[in-house]
Amino acid sequence: MEAEASNGNGNGNGCSNDHDIIRWFDTISTNVATVQRETLRQILELNRGVEYLKKWFGDKDLDIREMDACEMESLYTCLVPLVSHEDLEPFIQRIADGDTSPILTQHPITTLSLSSGTTEGRQKFIPFTRHSSKTTLQIFRLAAAYRSRVYPTRSKGRILEFIYSSKRFKTRGGLMAGTATTHYFASEEFRIKQEKTKLFTCSPHEVISNGDYKQTTYCHLLLGLFFQKEVECITSTFAYSIVQAFSSFEEQWEDICKDIKEGNVSSKITWPKMRKAVLDIIEPNPILASRIEAICEGLQGSDWFGLVPKLWPNAKYVYSIMTGSMQHYLKKLRHYCGSLPLVSAEYGSTESWIGVNLDPSLEPEKVTFAVMPTFSYFEFIPLYRQDQYSGSGSVDFIEDDPVPLSQVKVGQEYEIVLTTFTGLYRYRLGDVVEVSGFHNETPKLKFICRRKLLLVVNIDKNTEKDLQLVVEKGSQLLSKHRAELVDFTSHAKLTHQPGHYVIYWEIKGKVEERVLCECCREMDASFVDPGYVVSRRTNSIGPLELCIVERGTFKRILDYFIGNGAALSQFKTPRCTNDRTLLKILDLYTVKRFRSTAYG
User: Distances in Å between the alpha carbon of 110 and those of 50, 53, 126, 248?
Assistant: First the structure.
């Protein structure tokens, strides 16, 4: 099935290869029950006899190839338990330490990916194989084919990609470790993607792989403007990176114009290989520099509104992950992009790609993702929200037994469970999704939240999505006073009784204290979780606390994560944290505190 997709091409010339890869997806998204059983069969055949599976199958010499597909699926889900990363961690650690026996996969694992670490406060090792890069190439080309139907691009144009590698390192056992994006950018598939889609990144490998995100961002911007008329679209892994880049541009545009005028690179770019790679590309262009200077001088007067279409007039869209914790940045991104379309990128995780955006014209808030039924074997745990305020605060949903991909229902929320080609078996991903419809027979998913990101003090349970809605409502008052919310996070403070929620805001602009008091009260009153409302009324949860932090505090948090091995391409501000170092940074740079007057 993968071979059929390998001809896919994402350029806007209407070539047959676009039709080929779309036709391939239409084929595999029909009769998904059969496709999924075949995917499971391939995984079990590939990894037959590995230590982890023998632990559950025992000494049974199962002939997976000859076994009835339904019987095989039933036997697998009956014998192999649901697990979290914590359950698999001892096996993965043995691999990292150099054990070459077939523990999780028959083929030796030589590379490990690092998760971002922003959900649970620490990075996790995830097996990474050639299959990981191949599926990345496959989904990118499929998505490009669908985008080209709506937003055709010129062949051999350029992409301004704000992409960043982190430093890779060797584990104790000699395995290469780094973020999944870093592995992909260094892979053959990344080069092939550019050739097949006929769109080429503005920046050479030496810029992408530098490891210093500030220097890399500067060079991305410099080269993006040098190739101004050739840029067809602007992308990054996460929307945060694009906002971060243009925020940086507001402060550095004069230096960039000087470099374009002189065909030089600023002295702030200190890494020799990167300097040489950029200098090999650019040449003096005083006319272009003067044009950009004039545009920027005009943009300053409008607070940089419409920066993107003015500086890159041929760009067709901006493309990035914009769901979940990235939704907060949409307001600022729309400010920079004006009327230019925002296209939400594909849905995936370090563990596996999950779904593709088939309707690029949809606003990011409405986007859904059609599941790729050949990438992993998928199960879904039905989740039901607790309406009553009884039970433990650690239980966020009531669960039912997992169901296969072919049996999900529209309107139901689920947690995703993966069985992958890379050695994860019935692995709970921790993402909560809702089925919003189907493409042929494969479900279209709407991302709801990360399951472990919870604010809990007592019998209350508020998810990342709940927090996002509350912060949006509370921050609406800021725009009336010509201020904006730059970023936010939260913490359930339990050191004093009664415990209470703390929400940290970084604000751009001056706001009177009475307005911030009202923002605080509005957020406290906007949580609708019954457990929270009852607990506030009985004072078993204290008044919400709003902490205003200095400008630049969230960049310090970014620097902390990158200093611990994360890449900017993978960074997501944690919306709820118990990380002691993060809380220390937040409290150290808090300049004002307010307590809610809601509930008297």
Answer: 16, 20, 11, 37
Helix (H, G, I), strand (E, B) or coil at 439: strand
Report how far residue 422's alpha carbon sits from residue 180's, in angstroms, rounded to the nearest whole number: 13
Q: Is 294 exposed, middle or buried (0-12, 13-18, 19+ CB in 10 A)?
A: exposed
Low-confidence ranges of the chain (pLDDT < 70): 1-16, 59-61, 116-122, 193-198, 386-396, 453, 565-567, 569-570
Give the containing element (helix H, strand E) for 33.
helix 32-46
User: Cα–Cα distance between 35 and 25 in angstroms, integer?
Assistant: 12
For residues 48 and 52, what is the distance between their CA atoms, to the nearest angstrom? 10
Is the alpha carbon torsion for 538, 399, 421, 49 positive or negative?
Answer: positive
Query: CA–CA separation, 488 vs 574, rounded Å?
Result: 9
The CA distance from 587 to 585, in Å, is: 6
Hey, what's the torsion of the CAs at 312, 313, 317, 323, to 10 degrees? 50
- Report pLDDT for 387: 56
Residues 379 and 407: their CA atoms lie apart, in Å, by 9
Please choose, from the candidates 33, 46, 65, the residue with its C-alpha nearest in 3D space to the C-alpha of residue 109.
Answer: 46
Q: Count other C-beta atoms under 10 Å from residue 137's C-beta.
A: 22
Count, residues in the chain: 600
Measured between alpha carbons, how far is 203 from 160 in angstroms, rounded to an integer?
A: 8
The DSSP secondary-structure symbol of 83 reads B
Neighbours of 287 (CB within 10 A): 10
Mutual orientation of helices 130-150 and 188-197 as an angle, nearest 10°? Answer: 20
Provide the token pair at 59. Answer: 């000494």
Amino acid in the structure at residue 551: R
Q: How far apart are CA 373 and CA 471, in angstroms?
A: 36
Using a cut of 0.85, tell me whether the model's pTM lies above it.
no
pLDDT in tens, 349-382: 888 899 999 999 999 999 999 999 999 999 999 9
Q: What is the DSSP letter of 482?
A: T
CA atoms within 13 Å, Cβ hemisphere of 294: 6
* pLDDT of the residue at 116: 56
Question: How high is the pLDDT of residue 5?
Answer: 38
Closest by Cα among 527, 529, 488, 482 to 508: 482
Query: Which strands, in side-by-side order, build the sheet including 125-128?
Result: 125-128, 111-114, 176-179, 169-170
- The residue type found at 122 is R
Query: Cα(234)–Cα(319) distance, rounded to whole angstroms?
Result: 6
Q: How far apart are CA 399 and CA 417, in angstroms?
A: 13
